[in-house]
């Protein structure tokens, strides 16, 4: 009898708890639908109570396009609601408020979305603590200084030599080929050299390493995790979801982290044995990270932190660099007058290397503003990360671009949306690298709304490294080859994986241009 009484009591308690949960959900969703300060923001009604629309867009590889479409459906809207607790903005003032260095941006901390990207520890990208981020940045800032760039250049040149040898074979055969595929192999080997002390051998093999697909799977899993409302529990909870596609992504994440552990362990064992002919220790990015100390506290990163930074470096450097070089080749092929102007500048600056036979030193190359503006214009139109990098509003709430947002709401500005804003960029869908010097538009506003490398104190610390190898690669390719699209009428769009990539494969034809260049110089 006692057992029956206990069972009845437990059943009653369970029923009461269920009833309270249902009541809570009804009340919170009623508030979100009708009474929240966010209720009047434009957006699908379901975004008021659920992240399902955004999750579906992510599954379709159209998350960025989905957010942009919300602004297109609501002309003149400064902000749209993308979830129960998330808002995207499309206005320069929002960038200053959310990401800026000003005091008004101090209260905007990284949202719980970033917790999904903390793997074996907090990386500079994933840490939500401003104090921790500032300390990490102090520790590694010298790793990305001008002097460090010079020490990295031999590894860039070595990898580029391998790449050019492969391109020479295509130029000899003049067979059309997928150059973006080879850019991906180049950046994978290069980041292996810089982050792990050795390349992956993918250029030699002519095929990608397993590691590259694991990076994509891990990032997609993190993006799905970040849409859940449970903060640091998101990853664990999603890993229990028995959906085959989710489990495949989770297993990819685990394999990816194990690969990074083994590679970094090997790097640790070799960091003192790899000595250059000069007698100095190898000075790549990871060597700098291993030796880095916080100048204020003397703190160094432990193995798990370095492992997290390694994982972050591989994503940031390899994936984003290859896709940017792809867009530069595409647009330069479609705009021969800009291409020829850059070639003329290159030949004038490098008279002894007009056939592109040698890598171009970045100390001279970085003075060619048109080449760098081509990179910036590609990143404006096709930022690798197109969706918003979310920040939480201060607890007391705030006004952003004239819109009141309560505290604890994830807000951000999608790089791909603001980068095509007609209010900021005249003729925004046209590739015009000279807009950055010609005065075509408000240059200050355009610089504010350029989010290709992020903005504020958390913008990409590796920007100079990326610009170094991207401009070196494109400069040498232009001097060395005539590059033609197999289909001159090709119009490339974008498709979203973790990053925005071309929506289809395409091919180019290479021809060596050394002889014609020399003849032109003689004439």
Keywords:
523 residues, 21 helices, iron, single chain, five-stranded mixed β-sheet, transmembrane, alpha+beta, two-stranded antiparallel ribbon, globular, Cytochrome p450
General description of the model:
- It is a single chain.
- By secondary structure, this protein is α+β, with helices and mostly antiparallel strands.
- It has one domain (36-522): Cytochrome P450 (Cytochrome p450, Orthogonal Bundle), CATH 1.10.630.
- The protein is built from 21 helices and eleven strands.
- The protein has a five-stranded mixed beta sheet. A two-stranded antiparallel sheet has the order 5-6.
- The longest helix is centred in the N-terminal third of the chain and has 34 residues, at 2-35.
- The radius of gyration is 25 Å and the shape is globular.
Entry summary:
With 523 residues, the chain is of the alpha+beta class.
Mind telling me the C-alpha Rg?
25 Å
**CATH-defined topology:** Cytochrome p450
> What coarse outline follows from CA principal-axis ratios?
globular
Can you give the helix content as a percent range? Answer: 40-55%
What is the mean pLDDT?
85
Compute the separation of the termini in Å: 109 Å
Q: How would you sum up the major sheet?
A: 5 strands, mixed
CATH uppermost class: Mainly Alpha
Give the strand order of the largest sheet, numbering strands 1, 2, ... along the chain: 1-2-7-4-3
Number of domains: 1
Which structural class matches the secondary elements? alpha+beta
- CATH superfamily placement: Cytochrome P450
Protein name: Cytochrome P450 monooxygenase
InterPro entries: Cyt_P450, Cyt_P450_CS, Cyt_P450_E_grp-I, Cyt_P450_sf, Cytochrome_P450_monoxygenase
Binding site for heme: 460
Transmembrane segments: 6-27
